[in-house]
Write a structure and sequence with these properties.
The protein is built from four helices and 31 strands. With about 550 residues, it is mainly beta. Strands 7, 8, 10, 11, 12 and 15 form a six-stranded mixed beta sheet that branches. Helix 1 crosses helix 3. It is elongated.
Length: about 550
């Protein structure tokens, strides 16, 4: 060719129906003529662009001598262009889209297709098989049962391999083939918003996945990708992938109590786009999904701005409890993506928790006290002009009053505090105190007078050991009752008095706590002890007895 004057290149595209893919025959003269160019004698390489991906081509070349004589065409060189990247989307939310791509080899595609076909065949064969029918087959023919069981195990094994391969591709482990002399350096991703705004992203070669973030919710996007080869060569764009991001989560407040708020949420549907084939995520929620609720309020004691987070799993209804009483709260909900991406916060709602019930002691006696209770007025202004503010009318259905005695260890004997009710042992009233000096003298004098040979002190009456049980009372009252007299209390003791209201929907509130001191002790009774002795009539010898007393 160097000695020649010019060279000529002819390139033809072979149609699929013109040449048998398994044939070794040359395709010279067949197909559509794409290139018929004459080159100068210094050209020894050629790059042909604008070809169709995944198409078969034949290339022939001949040269012309200085005498303008053309040589023969070379044998057609057969080649097949690479297929375009397969761009797909994984899970997507309100502001993000998980993308992944692959370009598997022919062997990988064939293996995947065969595995998919095998799994489909097994599913068609065993989709109506029930455990009862399998057990009946075992009783009828054990050998046939074993063969069926082996096929089911093979089906499960193939299904596991298929799922593992698909999960690997979605995780960025998909195969991307390229020509040996033209490696891939990266990928170019183009994102087109429905209003025409374009975003460009470049991803280096390595991980075949990418998460588009910072998108708008409930908006349609068109995504394309192409490969960037070494030498500054760009591949062709993939097929457009049209996706609409999810809409925000809509939060609703179902009930507001004294220290809790019942909430429910659901995702709003996407807007309708006419004459467009756009991929949208199904509105699935509840089981298998994880959510988070944010509760913002001002601490009633310190005034510090608080932002509590509560995790919620497998549900669309939730009770946010342990909230401060009579406090304004702002709530929002968002969803967690399994791939590690939080969604946007949904629409927020605000409310004011109900004020508690106050309890006053009107009068206190030795063993009784007079109680009076009512709902306390709210100290938070209700902003009804705020569109996010929600408040429900409620009324009291009934009240509960609980009175319990505080033991000497200053602990309320209550199951709710986790402490067992203690008891204080007191001496038995039948116990005889120790004999003093005067008693010993009287007894000795009577013995000297010969009243009796032996003086027997009175024995206590058999009885069980007395145990003092702390006082405990729980009473229920209707909504119209606002006072109650508690009787049968122990004088000079401490008690806790608590009142709880049950509101609309049988929702219990919180216990109000106050310490009451019974300040009117009673006068203690003095207990006297005496010793009696029977005398016999007989003469006795008197002796001088001196009584010793301590001055």
């Amino acid at each position: 060719i160097k000695q020649g004057k010019t060279s000529k290149v002819v390139m033809r595209r072979t149609e699929v129906d013109e040449v048998d893919p398994g044939s070794n025959k040359h395709a010279a003269g067949l197909g559509t003529l794409l290139l018929d160019a004459t080159l100068n004698p210094q050209t020894h390489n050629l790059r042909v662009g604008g070809l169709t991906p995944n198409a078969r081509y034949h290339l022939s070349i001949r040269w012309r001598s200085v005498t303008d004589t053309w040589g023969d065409w070379t044998a057609p060189e057969e080649m097949t262009t690479l297929d375009t990247l397969s761009l797909r989307n994984g899970r997507f939310g309100e502001h993000y889209i998980n993308l992944f791509w692959e370009r598997p080899s022919e062997k990988t595609k064939w293996d995947y297709k065969r595995l998919q076909q095998t799994v489909d065949d097994f599913e068609r064969q065993f989709k109506h098989l029930t455990p009862h029918a399998l057990e009946a087959e075992r009783l009828r023919d054990s050998q046939e049962y074993e063969r069926t069981l082996a096929k089911i195990k093979e089906w499960k094994s193939h299904s596991s391999i298929l799922r593992s391969y698909e999960a690997g591709v979605e995780g960025g482990g998909g195969e991307v083939t390229f020509s040996g002399g033209l490696p891939i350096q990266g990928y170019h991703i183009r994102v087109v918003h429905e209003d025409g705004t374009v975003q460009e992203q470049y991803v280096d070669e390595g991980q075949h996945r990418y998460t588009l973030s910072g998108l708008r919710h409930n908006a349609a996007y068109t995504v394309l990708a192409c490969a960037h080869y070494s030498g500054g060569v760009w591949g062709v764009w993939t097929k457009p992938l049209k996706i609409m991001t999810q809409n925000l989560i809509q939060l609703q407040i179902q009930y507001v109590g004294e220290n809790f708020v019942d909430i429910e949420w659901k995702r709003a549907p996407n807007k309708k786009i006419p004459n467009e084939l756009v991929a949208t995520a199904p509105v699935l929620q509840g089981r298998g999904y994880q959510y988070e609720v944010s509760i913002c309020y001002a601490d009633p004691v310190t005034g510090e701005a608080m932002d509590e987070r509560r995790a919620m799993r497998d549900c669309t209804r939730f009770r946010v409890d342990d909230l401060p009483v009579d406090t304004r709260c702002v709530l929002r909900v968002r969803e967690w993506d399994p791939s590690g991406e939080w969604g946007l916060w949904g629409s927020e709602k605000s409310c004011v928790t109900m004020a508690g019930v106050g309890c006053n002691v009107e009068e206190v006696g030795e063993d009784w006290l007079e109680l009076r209770w009512d709902r306390l007025p709210s100290q938070v202004a209700l902003d009804y002009e705020d569109p996010t503010f929600v408040q429900f009318p409620s009324e009291e259905l009934e009240y509960y009053v609980r009175v319990e005695e505080i033991t000497e260890s200053n602990q309320v004997s209550s199951d709710r505090d986790g402490a067992s009710g203690g008891s204080q042992s007191t001496p038995s009233p039948n116990k005889i105190p120790e004999v003093d000096d005067i008693t010993r003298f009287l007894t000795a004098q009577q013995q000297e007078d010969g009243a009796c040979d032996e003086v027997l002190l009175p024995k206590p009456i058999p009885t069980e050991k007395a145990v003092v049980v702390p006082y405990s009372l729980v009473r229920r009252f209707d909504a119209n009752t606002r006072s109650f007299r508690v009787a049968d209390l122990t004088p000079n003791s401490f008690y806790t008095v608590e009142v709880m209201a049950v509101t609309t929907g049988s929702h219990p509130g919180v216990w109000s706590l106050s310490l009451i001191h019974i300040s009117e002790p009673t006068r203690l009774l003095s207990i006297s002890y005496a010793v009696f002795c029977l005398k016999k009539k007989k003469k006795i010898k008197k002796k001088n007895i001196k009584i010793l007393t301590d001055e």
